[in-house]
Amino acid sequence: MKFKSLFIFAFVALVGSACKESFLDINTNPNTLPTASPSFVFTNALNTTTTNMLGINETGEYWSGHWTQGNGYIISTTTFAYQFTNGDFNYWDSYYDNLQDYQYVIDNADANNQKYLKGPAKVMKALMFQQLVDMYGNIPYTEALKGGTVLAPKFDDQKTIYESLIMMLDEAIGEIKANPFASAFTGSDIVFRGNITKWAQFANSLKMRILIRQSKVAGRDAYIKTEINKIVTEGSGFITGEDVGAGGAFFYLATAGKLNPVYDRWGYDANGAKRALNNYPRLTQFLINSLKTAGDTLRMKRIAYANSGESSTTPGTSTLKEVSANYTGTPFGVSSGYLPANTTSLGPSLIVKGEYNRPYIIMTAAEIQFLLAEAKQRYSDVSLPNTAKAYFEAGIAQSFRTFGANTAGAAAYIGSKIDNYDWDASTNKLTAIATQKWIALTNFSGFEAWTEYRRTNLPVTPQSIQVPDNKRPVRLFYPNTEAGSNSANVTAQGTVDVFTTRLFWDVD
């Protein structure tokens, strides 16, 4: 009877509380989405950006000539014979989904008293759109990210988008400088931990990338020089001495799904077991031989492990002795004869067993220095304070640092008389800049390397063994998901040929 009385009392209490709290209120709209703090969305958006960039960076590593495929796997004709359709390489959907998160932060930061997130969110929004333009050309921009109000957004002109991104980054810098992070929310920023000076420097660095990308387009010189001078006048400067990275020891954990995404894909799982794709990427024969020829073995030994890969007993070192003879690159696109035991794999600059919590690099300091070097070389009258030579040599030094090599090795090339290494001895300064940038982007920024290859045609890398002619992709197809949901606007872009339909900055 006591139990029955308690049950009746509990039921009455539940019904009573339900009436007061609308526990059974069937008038609640189930289609109304819950709201989230912009700070939480921002953290997740930054983490999502790293996983999104992983895919296009891998494709770029291949198509820029840094990596090829290990022969322990069936050759991918999609990647290495360029036999792909609009059903392949769909980075579009994940990028726009990620952009929607940054837009949410921008739209809701003020109402939640988190204004300090608006500027950084705009920087990341500009980065995402810049990369989308560099993949696809014309894309939805002004009518994008409108949710259900615009279901079929129009496509905007790619050059116009580039100009708009410069203005967006100017706005972002103003908002960043005016709104310091609240100390309690610096943890929501997994890139700079709330350091607004570095966010402004990153914005300027990204502006330099967008501007120099257009440097071969006729009629753009005056615009580019004006914008570079505006950056100098603004005064925040550029990222120097460190890379732009997300996550790190404070964020990544030795738990499934919480590892650095590079480590998780090509390195090891949370328990230290090798991933199935550990032997998939191979450094190309062209890259390895080029480094050997220049005597650039310090960086080579950080870019790649010697043949047979990482030691199973001493993480971060090679199984074989680390001498040049034990580093063998794989010809691009070859499908047999180059097994893991006799070729080089991704090196300690990228993967070391147990180091699952390194930051994911979004932009390297070396790239920024080479952008400045090209700007000063092309436009000697811009107000950048250093010489092209000084920026070039700083770029090589920053590359050594990022790879984990002794930076004294960079200084050794000054006066070495080696073409494309020693500034004074290099016969073509722009070729030297492009070559050193290509090396510096290895392992970290494959998409940027492929994009720069399309712009400069440098270095002259071998064609895939799988391809009988010299045709190479210059862009991606619009994905079939967009063609299905926004067909009229996709069709309006005309017929896309991935071998001939160039982007506006790819003039030769």
What's the topology here?
Blueprint: H1 2-21, H2 38-63, E1 67-69, H3 77-80, H4 92-108, H5 118-136, E2 139-140, E3 155-156, H6 158-178, H7 196-213, H8 221-234, E4 244-246, H9 261-267, E5 281-283, H10 285-293, H11 297-303, E6 304-305, E7 345-346, E8 360-363, H12 365-378, H13 388-403, H14 408-411, H15 429-440, H16 446-456, H17 480-485, H18 487-491
Antiparallel strand pairs: 1-5, 2-3, 4-8, 6-7
Helix pairs in contact: 2-4, 2-16, 4-5, 5-6, 5-7, 6-7, 7-8, 7-12, 12-13, 12-15, 13-15, 15-16
**Helix fraction by DSSP (H/I, runs of at least 4):** 40-55%
Number of helices, counting only DSSP H or I runs of 4 residues or more: 18
Poorly predicted residue ranges: 1-33
Chain-averaged pLDDT: 94
Classified by CATH, the class of one domain is Mainly Alpha
CATH topology of one domain: Serine Threonine Protein Phosphatase 5, Tetratricopeptide repeat
Strands, count: 8
The helix/strand class is mainly alpha
Percent of sequence in beta strands: under 5%
Radius of gyration: 25 Å
Q: Provide the succession of SSEs.
A: HHEHHHEEHHHEHEHHEEEHHHHHHH
What's the shape?
Answer: globular
Largest sheet descriptor: 2 strands, antiparallel
Question: What's the CATH architecture name of one domain?
Answer: Alpha Horseshoe
> Could you tell me how far the N terminus lies from the C terminus, measured between alpha carbons in angstroms?
90 Å
| Widest beta sheet: strand line-up | 1-5
InterPro entries: SusD-like_2 (IPR041662), TPR-like_helical_dom_sf (IPR011990)
Pfam family, one: SusD-like_2
Organism: Larkinella bovis
Keywords: Lipoprotein, Signal
